[in-house]
Amino acid sequence: MSNEEITEGLAGIVEEVAGVDADDVTTEKSFVDDLDIDSLSMVEIAVQAEDKFGVKIPDDELANLKTVGDAVNYIAKNA
Amino acid sequence: MTTRTLTPTSGPAGTRLLGFGSTQGNRVVTNDDLARIVETNDEWIQQRVGIVSRRLGEDDQTVVSMAVEAGSKALASAGLSPADVDQVIIATCTMPGPIPNAAAQVADQIGIKAPGAFDLNAACAGFCYALNTASDLVRGGSARRVLVIGAERFQEWIDWQDRANCIIFADGAGAAVVGPAEEPAIGPAALGSAGDLVDTIYLREGKYIYQEGQSVFRWATTQIAPVARRAVELAGLQLSDVDALVAHQANLRIVEAVARKLQTQGARDDLVVARDIVHSGNTSAASIPLAIDHMLATGEISSGDVLLLVGFGAGLSYGGQVVICP
Predict the structure, then answer these.
(1) Mean pLDDT, to the nearest integer, of B251-275?
(2) Pick from B45, B91, B251, B293: CA 20 to 30 A from residue B126's CA?
């Protein structure tokens, strides 16, 4: 799966969980500062991403995923 | 060696709920009240946990005194007198100390003469465990009618400078009476535990309730819907048969996530979902009977409704069952 495909899939999850327009979910955006996503929504996004991409995202790893790009790279590396 | 046979015990085929009662701390504490003692605000609290206000007890509202009040009301709603009860179970994790238990003194203060009495600690799952134990005591012939009470006074177990946790917990008690029935109206319980996650909810410094928010949220939002589903299967029903979901009132977002998950798996769109946490906070073992009592009072649920109960919390322990609303 390409990084573009991961980004698109992740954007869909972010839109569903947090109500953020998928078009706004771009790699340079910070989940907390730019997209206004709180820690519990991050957990919901992680759980759905685990299902969709077949990857494990433990809570201590989740804390390191500050931007959409961080998450895309993590998924690309671990899926 | 002589062969000796003990008298076998047996009880009725089924059990049912006979009545509910509840009480709460007298002090209403709003989010703005909390913002005056700790760095927080109304919007943040509502967004994270869905609580608008919670109730804390006055000094004389102890676990025991609130359990007495809730238990007495449950007996009255069942149309029973104290003499009709022969067993008392209190689900609690917030007594001041491990000895004495609450159940014996609660029974005495209600006027129940020398019943079997014990406390049960399954934290926020306590009511579901106690209800199942009560039902099995009746079905096994060890008791005729059981008073089951979830009662908690959290305020001494809270670090009021811990803004992540002090906003959540509250004081209250909820009670139910369990008795015999020809047709089962309390389903078999789906019980379980996840002791490997014991470190996610604990007493910090041995004194103050603390939870790893993200870990608990992840566990509850992914692992509790399957427990609820299992309880429905054990009862021989379909998710579409369930009229109301009364989950432990841990966090409104957890409750709503569990409800959404069940609705994608067959629960009805018009499923009534207990949201008592909004004005009651998280009262641990008391939250489920408290919610049911409030929902009966407002008419959100009524006699004959199929209620799906599911509790989960420290331990981690979890459990759920289907009951028919009295």
Answers:
(1) 97
(2) B45
Q: Are B237 and B262 in contact (CB under 8 A)?
A: no
Do B14-181 and B190-324 show the same overall fold? yes
Residues in chain A whose Cβ is within 8 Å of chain B: 38-40, 42-44, 46-47, 59, 62
User: Which stretches of chain B are DSSP H helices?
Assistant: 31-35, 42-49, 63-78, 103-110, 126-139, 213-234, 252-264, 277-280, 287-298
Kindly list the domain boundaries of chain B, sorted by start residue: 14-181, 190-324
- Best B167, B211, B218 member to test A by mutation, with max A CBs in 10 Å, is B218
**Could B214 and A39 be called an inter-chain contact, meaning their C-beta atoms sit closer than 8 Å?**
yes
Q: What residues are paired with B308 via a beta bridge?
A: B245, B322
The model's pLDDT over B72-107, given as tens digits with 9 standing for 90+, comes to 999 999 999 999 999 999 999 999 999 999 999 999
Chain centre distance of CA B212: 21
| Residue with token string 């579409």 | B240
What pLDDT score was predicted for residue B200?
Answer: 94
Pick the CATH number of B14-181 from 3.20.20.80, 3.20.20.140, 3.40.47.10, 3.40.50.11540: 3.40.47.10
For residue A42, list chain B residues with Cβ-Cβ distance below 8 A. Answer: 214
Q: What is the domain-level CATH number for residue A60?
A: 1.10.1200.10
Q: Do A43 and B214 touch (CB under 8 A)?
A: yes
Q: What angle do CA B20, B22, B26 make, to 5 degrees?
A: 170
Residue of A nearest to B200 (CA): A59
Distance from CA of A26 to the nearest CA of B (A): 24
Count of structural domains, chain A: 1
A68 lies in which domain range? Answer: 3-78
CATH topology of domain B190-324: Peroxisomal Thiolase; Chain A, domain 1 (3.40.47)
Pick the catalytic residue: A36, A38, A51, A59? A38
Total length of chain B: 326
Question: Using the beta-carbon criterion (under 8 Å), do A38 and B215 form an inter-chain contact?
Answer: no
- B215: contact with A, CB 8 A cutoff: yes
Contacts with A, B 220-279, CB within 8 Å: 221-222, 253, 257
Query: Which residues of chain A lie closer than 8 angstroms to B222, CB-CB?
Result: 47
User: Distances from the Cα of B326 to the Cαs of A75, B32, B185, B206, in angstroms?
Assistant: 50, 38, 9, 40
Span B162-180, pLDDT tens digits: 999 999 999 999 999 999 9
